[in-house]
């Protein structure tokens, strides 16, 4: 071995090991410690310390290998290693000496034999996964809105399933539960029908809302607003979003839609005070084809959002809105903007149809699959706002207590299935009949009511009087029923709109 101990060498273009040497070239520091070794194959070894720069003459470094064991540290001189790439095939092992690899980007990663991570998600077979949140929120009760699958239409149980006409210049709340439909505003001339319809071409859902334009409004007046609200959220349920504060949370609004009319439609998210709105566009790309649309909405840090049992958040879906109620899209506006400035006028032809289902309003930054609830749970949620007490085909009413107050008046006290939102109104559908003892069935008419309550419960009664016929027996037990062969209902309403 030839040993050279210069303090400085310059102008050297080539170093060749001597004849008969062990074909090793080594470089030592002045304390005799070997720092660099090159053998006869060209393999280079840094004996101690770290490599701050590793560069191939051309292309990329194709092999980085420890003589024994693992490479325990791969470090950039500053910052992080920005690229780690195999020329062909896959990087089969990437291991941190302690802790975990905190960032690893690839098409697919395998963790052991059971877990695969890809752009589609995490597939774990036979192992447990611990996860604290889903999309920044809870695993259940992610869907804040009620009846998003259009499955509940309580009034159809006794009043029939025919389509209801909306407009012109009217609004309807007696169709699918917890929704508002309107062809209204100043100068609006159009009308449409709405009905709950069975879905045959979207396997995840059984029902949808079907809309048909029945009277066209081809030239929208500035004050017209043809629209519907598929989402109405009570303040007690909206509180989790903390809108109107600096901690306001983002939401994702998604839905499935189908129409024969393609184009860029509009809608908005707004408050009950009609002075905060977030207009948005969505595009129906293919005619007569179900498409899922996703709208991401930043939480509103200002404005007034009810936090009690009043309406807090509503989503308006525009079918054609005049300029008085449109505004700049994708930002919060201090106005009642029901749609963005530019959007489709669906009301322009009686040939137009529109179908919607799978409506979901959820906390977070990303869309998740539609959250289905048991049917009975969805009904009970709807009955907080509308609770009909029904009698079918001439039979007796259920969920009512009846007191024969006098010979011509009875007192009716509802038995509530769930606490309603607030003290409610009372309406009668059909004809009620009442009799005491063996007396005749007498037609019974609503004659005033007295109810009180709040978000925790209600109490009270309403009076009903006979319209003709023989007198009832005072203070006797009564039977209250529908007219023979017909349906009737006592409608308790505490709707949000």
Fraction in helix? under 10%
The coarse overall form would be elongated
Give me the CATH fold name of the domain at 156-379: Jelly Rolls
Strand arrangement in the largest pleated sheet: 7-10-11-20-13-16
Q: Sheet with the most strands?
A: 6 strands, antiparallel
Could you report the average pLDDT, rounded to the nearest whole number?
88
Poorly predicted regions are none
Query: What structural class is derived from the secondary structure elements?
Result: mainly beta
Structure commentary:
By secondary structure, the protein is mainly beta. Among the domains are: 156-379, Sandwich (Jelly Rolls); 385-493, no CATH class. 3% of the residues lie in helices and 37% in strands.
What is the element layout, followed by pairings?
Blueprint: E1 25-28, E2 34-38, E3 44-46, E4 108-111, E5 115-118, E6 121-124, H1 156-159, E7 164-166, E8 170-172, E9 180-186, E10 191-198, E11 207-215, E12 223-234, H2 235-238, E13 251-259, E14 263-271, E15 277-284, E16 291-297, E17 311-321, E18 326-327, E19 339-340, E20 353-363, H3 375-382, E21 386-391, E22 400-403, E23 409-414, E24 425-429, E25 432-436, E26 442-454, E27 457-466, E28 478-482, E29 488-493
Parallel strand pairs: 18-19
Antiparallel strand pairs: 1-2, 2-3, 4-5, 5-6, 7-10, 8-9, 9-12, 10-11, 11-20, 12-17, 13-16, 13-20, 14-15, 14-17, 21-29, 22-23, 23-27, 24-29, 25-26, 25-28, 26-27
């Amino acid at each position: 071995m030839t040993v050279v101990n210069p303090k400085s060498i310059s102008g050297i273009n080539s170093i060749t090991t001597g004849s008969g040497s062990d074909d090793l070239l080594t470089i030592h520091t002045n304390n005799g410690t070997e720092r660099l070794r090159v053998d006869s194959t060209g393999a280079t070894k840094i004996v101690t310390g770290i490599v701050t720069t590793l560069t191939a003459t051309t292309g990329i470094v194709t092999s980085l290998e420890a003589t024994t064991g693992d490479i325990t540290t791969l470090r950039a001189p500053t910052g992080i290693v920005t690229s780690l790439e195999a020329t062909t095939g896959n990087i089969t092992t990437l291991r941190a000496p302690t802790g975990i690899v905190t960032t690893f980007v690839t098409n697919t990663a395998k963790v052991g034999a059971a877990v695969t991570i890809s752009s589609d998600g995490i597939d774990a077979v036979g192992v447990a996964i611990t996860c604290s949140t889903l999309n920044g929120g809870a695993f259940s009760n992610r869907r804040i809105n009620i009846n998003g699958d259009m499955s509940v239409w309580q009034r159809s149980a006794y009043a029939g399933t025919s389509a209801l006409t909306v407009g012109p210049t009217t609004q309807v709340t007696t169709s699918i539960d917890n929704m508002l439909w309107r062809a209204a505003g100043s100068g609006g001339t159009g009308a449409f029908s709405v009905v709950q319809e069975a879905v045959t071409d979207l396997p995840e859902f059984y029902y949808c809302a079907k809309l048909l334009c029945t009277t066209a409004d081809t030239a929208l007046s500035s004050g017209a607003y043809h629209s519907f609200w598929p989402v109405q959220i009570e303040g007690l349920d909206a509180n989790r979003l903390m809108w109107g504060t600096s901690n306001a949370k983002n939401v994702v609004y998604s839905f499935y839609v189908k129409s024969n009319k393609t184009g860029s439609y509009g809608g908005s998210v707004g408050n009950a005070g009609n002075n905060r709105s977030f207009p948005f566009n969505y595009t129906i790309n293919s005619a007569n084809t179900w498409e899922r649309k996703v709208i991401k909405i930043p939480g509103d840090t200002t404005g007034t959002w009810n936090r009690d049992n009043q309406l807090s958040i509503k989503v308006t879906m525009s079918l054609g809105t005049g300029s008085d109620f449109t505004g700049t899209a994708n930002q919060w506006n201090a106005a009642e903007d029901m749609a963005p400035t530019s959007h489709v006028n669906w009301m322009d032809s009686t040939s137009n149809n529109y179908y919607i289902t799978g409506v979901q309003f959820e906390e977070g930054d990303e869309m998740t699959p539609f959250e289905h609830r048991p049917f009975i749970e969805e009904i009970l949620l709807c009955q907080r706002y509308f609770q009909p007490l029904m009698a079918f085909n001439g039979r007796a009413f259920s969920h009512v207590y009846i007191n024969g107050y006098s010979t011509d008046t009875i007192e009716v006290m509802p038995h509530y299935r769930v606490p309603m939102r607030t003290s409610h109104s009372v309406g009668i559908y059909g004809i009620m009949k009442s009799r005491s003892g063996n007396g005749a069935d007498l037609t019974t008419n609503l004659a005033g009511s007295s109810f009180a309550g709040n978000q925790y419960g209600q109490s009270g009664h309403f009076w009903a009087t006979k319209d003709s016929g023989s007198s009832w027996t005072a203070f006797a037990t009564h039977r209250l029923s529908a007219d023979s062969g017909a349906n009737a209902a006592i409608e308790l309403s505490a709707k949000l709109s």
